[in-house]
Amino acid sequence: MANSTAKAHAGPEQAAPMPPAGAMTGPGSAMRAGLDPDSDQWVRALKSEGRLYEQACTRLHEVLLRIARSEIGRRNAHNITGPERDDLAHQAAADALLAITRKVGQFRGESKFTTWAFKFVVLEVSAKLGRHFWQTPGISLDTEEWDRLPDYFGVDPAAETEARDLLAGLRAAVDDVLTDHQRRVFVALTVNGVPLDALVDKLGTNRNAVYKTMFDARSRLRDRLTALGYLDTNTARRP
Fold first, then answer.
1. pTM check: above 0.85
2. How many CB atoms lie within 10 A of CB 229?
3. What is the mean pLDDT of each run of 10 residues along the chain (239 residues)?
4. Pick from 74, 73, 105, 100: nearest CA to 10
């Protein structure tokens, strides 16, 4: 089977419908055990050669491109627009397609094939958005923008003194009760406004690990600020 990189970049203009399952005959044409008909059709087509394989790649690329565009729009904290945004979507869809065609033999049918494929393009979007953020000149993970927090949270000028007092207590608590890793993650996301995907890329980790670190950091900070009287019990319990 000639699974080439060029095939993975098949564009929407070549779109052709998948042939019906009944049109596939010969050895291995029976539905694989445990797969729904649609998933079985995808797997057989992507393991085939020639026109059937090309048609499957073209159709799957269209699906992945729609997902990539939607995900970039949903996550776009970088305000990427125009041709650059569309280029990122095409890159994510093409790389996801290449990964799927290489790993289609690993599909075991625990979910629908399209659900399994969805994960590949979402991961590609995350990685590409993350890398894109750090290409901006002057961006650094070590920068700390504490002074901009009152503006970031839209603090009422009448309450600015109280807010700055709370932020001073927060800054001291960050230094006192957080581990170095928790501090880095908290400051990056909350103080500096680094997008989650960018932080995941920089730390070489995953979204769930960052979520867990932030949860633990916020719990420690909430307890310290409550103990010092900056937060009352009801405030401390709010999400």
1. no
2. 8
3. 42 40 41 76 94 95 95 75 88 96 92 94 88 69 67 54 79 92 90 83 89 94 87 55
4. 100
